[in-house]
Structures are given as structure tokens and as C-alpha cells.
Amino acid sequence: MRTERNLTRRLDRVFARLDREPERPAHIDVPRMSRHRVVLFTATLAFYLAIVWAVVISSWLVRLDWQVMFFRPYQQWPQIHAFLDYYVVLGQRGPTAVMVAAWLGWRSWRQHTLRPLLTLAASLLLLNITVGAAKLGMGRLGPHYATTIGSNEMGLGGDIFPSGHTANAVVTWGILAYLASSPRARRWLSALSAVTSLGVGLTTVYLGTHWLSDVLLGWAAGLLILLALPWCEPLITKVETALFALRDRWRARRSRPATEPLVPVTPVALTPRGVPADNPSVREPVSSTRASRGPVHLAPGPHTARSERTPVTPVGSRRPPHADRHPRGTSQPARPLTGG
Which of 60, 206, 299, 336 shows the greatest Cβ crowding within 10 Å of its Cβ? Predict the structure, then answer.
């Protein structure tokens, strides 16, 4: 009994702490485009362009791609093939985006800010645009679909260059380091995301789905997006402010009473046509909200119940005239008797 009570008290404390939402942080550490970051961005962009140029001219990097492909790592170490089949999922966009969005959504709810989710959305949007355009623009075929030995396989309708798994791993896990709340957490998360993305890139080479140069370009593409995120911070702030304003208007609309108070209607005196307006005996107050009706003819005298009223017999017959019929109250001629 005592153990159950202690466990119940601990659970109550945990839920009470979760229900106590903190206020939005007054000073959120937002990375800025510093001189150091600009230098890193420029160097990464130069590395990106150098990889593309080395592949286009079929340099030593393309020869290295073919040597690694002929080495067939999945045949050299088949014992780790089953593990790497699952590990490569850390670079797939769908599962990783769901996992990271769940954690950042929790942070957004606890800190009363949409910045973590909006930053993730901005980074994934940049990733889809830049990497997708590069894939379709260069059209390189993968190792499994290569046509000519020693060729760079460019412009043949492929979508393998740069590696999307590698770039997605760099961006998705690197966004956790970008949004870290302390320098120590940022360092640890940066190292963790670098190791994870490095493992995902090498796994794609092991499985034979990417060239080695694809992975190098994927790392550079993902790093460029992370380094460029401070330029998106003003737009993220504007979107967050607009969403919060929309939420406040929606809450204000929901908090209004369902029924508005009725406004008393003052009766208006209407004068029939042909009656002078200065004759008060014919004036009758009529509500302005009552619909217009036709003239109603009432019988003079006091109102009586239906049971007390004298029945009125209609004059004449309602039946249509007929040659063989006679009106009521008149004697009919006797019909002749016929025998037989």
C-alpha cells in the first residue's frame, strides 16, 4: 500500500509539473549571420561547386567512384548488411521529419513559441528546393543503373546527385543543434548530428545506392542549408507573429456569447390610407417587425367562444346544377310504375 501511494504521489507531481506551462522565454538565443558563419558558408559553397566540377569533367573523383563501386562493400562485410538496412532509415525524410517534429512540437508548446517548428519547416523547404533542383538538373544515374564504365553518368535522367539521404540527415539532425538552448548542448548535438549523417552517407555507399561523390555533395548541400538559416530568421519571426495574431482573433471570436442581447423594438403607429393623421381614434400601434398582411375583417362585438357562436347555414346549395336533380324543399313528381 505504501509503495502504491508513493508511486501515485510521484505521478501526480509529474503531471502537475507538465500542466504548469512556463512563460515564453524573454531572450531566445537566435543564431545570427556572423562573420565566422559567412566564412563557413563561403567555404562550403566553394567545396560544393568543386565537387560538381570534378564530376562534370570526369576527374579522379569519378574514377574513385567506380573503384568503390567495383569493391562492392556489401559483399565484403555481409554481416552488417541487416543492421545498415535499418540504420539508413535515419536519413529518410518522412520518418526523421516526424520524429524531430514531435520533439520540436513539444518544445514549442512548452515555451509558447512556434519558432522551432517554423525553423524545421523552413529548413525542409530549402532542402526540397535546392537538393531537388540539383538532382533534376544534373540527372546523374546511380551505380545500379550505370551504362558506361568510367563515365560520370551525368545528364541521363537520373536523380542521384547529390545524395538526398545524406543531405536530409545533415539538416534534420543538425536542426536540433541549431535550436539548442545552451552552447554545451549545441556542441554535443552538433557532434551527434555529424556522426549520424556521416554514418548515413557511408551506408548508402555500402549498399551501392550512391556514388561516393554523391555523399560528399549531400553533406555540403545539407551544411549550406544549416548555415543559411539565420537569413530566414526575420521571415520566421513575421510568420510566427501573424499566426499568433490569427490565433488571438479566433479565440476572441469563440469567446463571444452565442446569442446577442435582443434590442427592444418600439411600436410604430401606422395610419391607414384616406384617414387623417390627426384622428387618434383610428390609430393602432403596430410592431415594425411584424410582416405585412392583407386586410382582416372582424365581426363587430365582443369576442365569443366557438361553442357559443350561432351556426351559420350557407345560402343555396354547393352542388353543381344537374338536370335530374331538384332543389331541396320541392316535391318531386312520382315515378311511373312499370311492370314486368
Answer: 206
Helix (H) or strand (E) run with residue 141 in it: none
Show Cβ contacts of residue 191 under 8 Å, excluding neighbours closer than 6 positions. none
Please tell me the distance from the alpha carbon of residue 237 to that of residue 241, in angstroms, as a whole number: 6
CA distances from 125 to 30, 103, 129 (A): 20, 19, 6
Quick count: other Cβ atoms within 10 Å of Cβ 64?
A: 14
Number of other residues whose CB lies within 10 A of the CB of residue 16: 9
Which among 138, 126, 128 has a CA at the least distance from the CA of 214? 138
pLDDT (tens digit, 9 = 90+) per residue, 267-288?
A: 545 455 555 555 555 455 444 4
Spatial neighbors of 77 by CB under 8 A, at least 6 apart, are 206
Residue range 152-210, pLDDT digits in tens: 999 888 889 999 999 999 999 999 999 988 888 889 999 999 999 999 999 999 999 99
* Type of residue numbered 97: A
* CA–CA gap between residue 50 and residue 162 (Å, rounded): 13
